[in-house]
Amino acid sequence: MIKINYYHSLIFFNLSIFLSAFEFLRDNNLLILSLFLILSLGISHGALDHLKGKKLLKILNYKSISLFYFFYVLIGISIILLWLLFPQFLLLIFLITASYHFGKEDSEFIKNKSNFDLFYFFKGSIVITAPLLFHKADTLNIFENLNFYVSQSIFISNEFIYIMIVISLFVNILISFNNQIEIKSLLLMDFLSILILNYFLSPILAFTIYFCFLHSVRHAFKLSSELNKKNIIKGFHLFAIKAVPLTILTATLFLISLFFLNDYYYLDSAISKVIFIGLASLTFPHILLEYLIEKNE
Hints:
Low-confidence stretches: none
Number of helices: 14
Number of domains: 1
Distance between the termini: 21 Å
Number of strands: 0
Mean pLDDT: 85
Order of helices and strands: HHHHHHHHHHHHHH
Radius of gyration: 19 Å
Helix content: over 70%
Shape: globular
């Protein structure tokens, strides 16, 4: 798995440089393309949660899969409702949770990794701080579109952002400490790829490329290896087949939401809301499920 992820990071690093060379990508938000990629490649990495739900119920000695579906959907709907009521609080919690999630899942294949969860938060925080560093105005506009106003906050000052990025780099070094050169190179390439994408591309497009082609693909590798420990190619084929139904269902719900939101907001604003609020409603139950399996397994 280390070699697979190393070559994946190498390809993604070169892809980041390649995409950043196109002026068309640098000058356009391409929100519709971002939405398409997230609805196809992005959300598919959580499309096996129903299988993990069965696994968790088996561990906890529950037999009814409907119980899992009920609570999974309930948490997702609750996140959407809470976002409507408390957008400032929910987006802040989402950014913190997402940073931890990105940091943990992007490095969980590394053996002897630290159990200190704060390390994963700082590692993944580069996904949030990089767009603030290079495109602060555009990023704040996205936040404001989601009813999150932080224009006067110390947390978006240049000094704080620089400190967070330095800490993220330092944590990557700590995580790779005492590990082979492939892991050190892999983590450095991932870190630089995120900076390159956010320097040249718009915040949403940069996030989309990271989320779909680094984070989601890496998680798909893990799921594929779990489905077939002896042959990851066959495992990936099986993963793709099993992921299709829930991916289509989730994408359909996203598009229905976009159809209704477009009656009240401009298309760009509606797409931004669907992407981030939709991802939040999926991320919280997904992370909770991963946590419960890890603690009970």
